[in-house]
Amino acid sequence: MTAPRSRIQRKNRETILDAALEVFSAHGFRGATLDQIAEVAGLSKPNLLYYFPSKEAIHSALLTGLLDTWLDPLRTMDPRGEPVAEILGYVRRKLDLARDYPRESRLFAGEIIQGAPRLAGVIETDLRALVEDKAAVLRAWMEEGRIARVDPVHLIFSIWALTQHYADFDAQVRLVLGPGHDPFAEAGGFLDTLFRRLLEPRPDP
């Protein structure tokens, strides 16, 4: 039986994970080193290795913790709700997630760009099942004539792309907009209009 961690051990573990998130999101998995993570954490490398045996172990712990946070906004889409409001609520939750967790978004993007070596199994099982479940909800709303007919899976993909862009390409967005702009506030209004128009039911030709 594993002994419970002490308060100091929990604090050091959290410090290491936060430092690793900073390093991985800035340098990617391949560019990050244990020395960099230890330096940002303010710990010696041997002390770091007491908590995590390898860079891979730290990265895996971060991704495991991140995945639930990343999937929660989609899980909360309610089949009993008003369709357009539920979808726009999902868009807003994803945009808020990109705003509040930009490092986590870049960490996830880096994993996917590498071919998802550590998350492929979860994506092929848990994420695929969740997307299929919500796609079925979207299809039911379309069959009822409550939203326009579009490909439901690609609708979900488009929401991911159009919200996470503001975290993953934050520097580009801010440089193009220039000073005096709030990218997330402006994006919220634009995406609301975009998806509302896309989803408005249209009569069959």
CATH fold category name of the largest domain: Tetracycline Repressor, domain 2
Q: How much strand?
A: under 5%
Number of strands: 0
Quickly give the CATH architecture of the largest domain: Orthogonal Bundle
Number of helices: 10
Structural class: mainly alpha
Please state the overall shape, judged from the principal axes of the Cα atoms: elongated
Poorly predicted segments: none
CATH superfamily of the largest domain: Tetracycline Repressor, domain 2
Q: Count structural domains.
A: 2
* Name of the CATH class of the largest domain: Mainly Alpha
Largest sheet: none
Order of helices and strands: HHHHHHHHHH
**Helix residue percentage:** over 70%
Topology of this protein?
Blueprint: H1 7-31, H2 34-41, H3 45-51, H4 55-75, H5 83-100, H6 102-113, H7 120-143, H8 152-168, H9 170-177, H10 183-199
